[in-house]
Hints:
The complex is a heterodimer of chains A (178) and B (339).
Chain A (H helix, E strand, L loop, with lengths): L20 E7 L2 E7 L5 H8 L18 E4 L2 E4 L12 E3 L12 H8 L9 H14 L5 H7 L10 H18 L3
Helix pairs in contact in A: 2-5
Chain B lengths: L4 E4 L3 H9 L4 E4 L5 H6 L7 E4 L8 E3 L5 E4 L4 H5 L2 H6 L1 H9 L3 H6 L2 H6 L5 H4 L41 H8 L2 E6 L2 E6 H4 L18 E7 L7 E7 L10 E10 L2 E10 L6 E2 L1 H7 L6 H11 L11 H19 L13
Parallel strand pairs in B: 1-3, 2-3
Antiparallel strand pairs in B: 4-5, 5-8, 6-7, 6-8, 9-10, 10-11, 11-12
Keywords (chain A): 2Fe-2S, Iron, Iron-sulfur, Metal-binding, Oxidoreductase
InterPro entries (chain A): 2Fe-2S-bd, 2Fe-2S-bd_dom_sf, 2Fe-2S_ferredoxin-like_sf, 2Fe-2S_ferredoxin-type, 2Fe2S_fd_BS, Aldehyde_Oxdr_Iron-Sulfur, Beta-grasp_dom_sf
GO molecular function (chain A): 2 iron, 2 sulfur cluster binding; metal ion binding; oxidoreductase activity, acting on the aldehyde or oxo group of donors
Amino acid sequence: xxxxxxxxxxxxxxxxxxxxxxxxxxxxxxxxxxxxxxxxxxxxxxxxxxxxxxxxxxxxxxxxxxxxxxxxxxxxxxxxxxxxxxxxxxxxxxxxxxxxxxxxxxxxxxxxxxxxxxxxxxxxxxxxxxxxxxxxxxxxxxxxxxxxxxxxxxxxxxxxxxxxxxxxxxxxxxxxxx
Amino acid sequence: xxxxxxxxxxxxxxxxxxxxxxxxxxxxxxxxxxxxxxxxxxxxxxxxxxxxxxxxxxxxxxxxxxxxxxxxxxxxxxxxxxxxxxxxxxxxxxxxxxxxxxxxxxxxxxxxxxxxxxxxxxxxxxxxxxxxxxxxxxxxxxxxxxxxxxxxxxxxxxxxxxxxxxxxxxxxxxxxxxxxxxxxxxxxxxxxxxxxxxxxxxxxxxxxxxxxxxxxxxxxxxxxxxxxxxxxxxxxxxxxxxxxxxxxxxxxxxxxxxxxxxxxxxxxxxxxxxxxxxxxxxxxxxxxxxxxxxxxxxxxxxxxxxxxxxxxxxxxxxxxxxxxxxxxxxxxxxxxxxx
Lengths: 178, 339
């Protein structure tokens, strides 16, 4: 079978190869070099390239908080940042906070307080709450509510979420004698 | 998202050079607004210059008694900075009234000034919008315009600037330092953002290729008598329908000096210096506040679904002035950082 001769090369409708480059990320204590296009969000890099699907894509526009991860200990929306901007940053996802055999204090508190229904927002809620603990600025329920407002839960499990976070906040502040 | 190339600048000169060397290029800081706009195809840069890691993240004293806020300092680091909390609590309150902790952790000070309107039609590429596509028309005029402006609008555009931080800055009147292909210059904050006129595609007065390097606050921070009052559809994590920033200097019950700026009502943070002049030398009474508030909204024009903003703004001004004069802060400010 021969192709008809034309003035332009035949590509068969296949798009040009995506220009990718190596991006070195430290994810949950492990150094990973991923081959990524510059427009790959940190969220997509984690889910599609590092195969860590604990971090969830909710709105993909910074409005729901489901994609919250910790970068150098600070919580951010991984959907609104490019992976390539985080070369050599330390990234912690829900997979890095605890293990099924050894849950982190927040993960255990979420179980104890039934702080979820469908569970889709939970990894973002827990990473956000870990960021809140790292910041150390929330003490009262009102402060926790305000400083967790970047995480939506459409099942409405807010009461349990608040109880879970408050329990760990209280425990941490009593541990440091504050 | 449209494909683009990417580079990370090593210093300001490198960033300016890199941007000038690429057509349709853009600076990216935190990216919290720009990446969203790129996903929606509202912005389609062909090249991004990452400026987030430039050495511009310090917050430091200025020799004239003011405070320099580095352009790449995050909104979080700025809000919680000890000097900002103590000397410019109005700024602390305004920043913490905006967005969410996650967004404030990524968003930079320079980027906050550069963020674009959240007018529905600007985001919806299927509809005409003079800001997005000059000459195509304004869908918000005669459309669904609940979030749009009531002051300083034009026949071409009724969009509002979405920032909380910038409303406090309008009241505090810093200088914006910028670097560009033609060197460095400073812009008074008042002159940084612009009204839409017949060129709504320009949000501000930056020249092509210029990069914000810092915001230099003057010494006067109105730390004793201030208020940032933000009114919105839900108590947290929502843009302002109307917000008011007030700084007062009191002499007993008399207003010695006043600053007054509004958010959610115009294409730029709306500082009203004629209202500030009206407050000067007056007793801090309900009568004074009512008169000044009426003056601020005297020329306001509703667009239909945002008519309510005129009365809302008038009442919000009265309340914010009262809170500032009495040295009260608004409810919800328990996270000022005093604990």
